[in-house]
Amino acid sequence: MAKTAAKDMWWRWWLLFTQAAALAGPWMQAKPQLEVLHQWVEMEFEWPNATARETALQSQKYRPEHNVLAGLKVCGPEVASRCTHQMIFVTVPRWATGVPASLNLLTDSQGQAKLQPWPSMEAQDPQNCSNIQYVQSMEIDPQGVMWVVDVGRKYFTETSDDKCPPKILLIDIPSGDIIDSYVFPDEVAPYTGSFLNDIVLDVEHQMAYISSTGNTPADKGAIIVYDRANKRSRRIEDRSTHAEHGARLVIHSTDYSKLLEGLPVDGIALTPDGERIFYSALGGTELYSISAAKARNFSVNVSSVLASVDSHGKKSSNSDGMTFGADGFLYFGGLTMDSLLRWKPGTPLNETQQLAVDHEKLWWIDTFAWDNRGNLWLTSNRLNSWFFRDVVPPAMDFTGSSGANFRILKIPVGSNSYMYRKN
Question: Which of 169, 174, 216, 326 is the most buried (most CB within 10 A)?
């Protein structure tokens, strides 16, 4: 009888535990594991030979300390059937001189990951405005076409070169051919002040939504809408796309609040149903969304579009890039927390889940990509230590004594890109 009672009591306790675990949900579950795929102290390019590299160094056409990993996209058969094998594309912004190529394909050279200018080095001649000037971000659609945002302006951490206008290029990935292009008018993306930063695609309507992190008198921050079918664009802005003031932003024990607070809309993401555009300022924590249906309908005036702005509250940290998964979660980095976060719209922001935290590997999560194998890819780049290296410590260390500066990582999250919700 005693053994039966003890067994019954054990069983009751086990039921209570499993029920509590089910109610606790993700808090009781093991966190997915980060995998570092590639890492660099400094970004290294693929050169024809050692002499070509040395010549580039001597002429300062290649200045390693000016090359920072930023954008990332993956194209394999699961992303686009025309990508017969997995290809990894990355961007190196031309924030300063000495960047050989801004858009690159990752290659393996004797076991070392290197950057191969893509579609070619010649296509990125900074002296020819018809060529690629400076790419911060891009997106790949299910047809295997890369939508490339060319900022146009470059070197604006030194003496800004504003002679080339911003444009968008569509590049067929299998062939590397530019199949379409569009130059944004000055009133949409000011040639002396815009900074076309991140991009999301509405594949069904052939629309692109782009954040402009201008932070200049000519451009205080906006969302740019590009209508490919009708070759037109427009600018949407109000206080929600401008800089946010008052957020306290401490990264690795250094207060960057004043340095970052002037930076407007940066991260931008489209819901899987294509109906809401989410966005947030780089220098703030407030999260907003706006109606995509109204934004893409050019017969709806801008004031009516802006009437659809919703504020969802404050995130636990400011963030750089963001992305929706087909699962309906919004994924973003916590820059003050060295963490990867996700949140389901419709729930309070204080219920945001922390998927991973790592004070080295996730130091400034920049950009995201999907491989449609259930994995979320991302770049981290310690960006605060590069941009503000002459103002506050720590300055980015290119000697290697502080470890890798730039990483490409992936983490299983059980979802695919927002563009593949039907799959």
Answer: 169
- Find how far residue 85's CA is from the centre of its chain: 23
Contacts of 24 (CB under 8 A, 6+ apart): none
* CA–centroid distance for 61 within its chain: 26
Percent of the chain with pLDDT over 90: 90
User: What are the structural domains, with CATH classification, of the chain?
Assistant: 31-420 (2.120.10.30)
Q: Let me know: does 72 contact 406? Beta carbons within 8 Å.
A: no
What pLDDT digit, counting tens, does each position of 306-326 carry? 999 999 999 999 999 999 999
CB contact set of 394 (below 8 Å; sequence gap of 6+): 252, 254, 385, 402
> By CB neighbour count within 10 A (0-12 exposed, 13-18 middle, 19+ buried), where does 419 fall?
buried
What is the side-by-side strand order in the sheet with 232-236? Answer: 196-202, 207-212, 222-227, 232-236
Cα 219 to Cα 129, 136, 241, distances in angstroms: 21, 17, 11
Closest CA to 106 of 386, 403, 377, 417: 377
Q: Per-residue pLDDT tens for 388-422? A: 999 998 899 999 999 999 999 999 999 999 999 75
- 244-269: per-residue pLDDT in tens? 999 999 999 999 999 999 999 999 99
Closest CA to 369 of 324, 317, 306, 304: 324
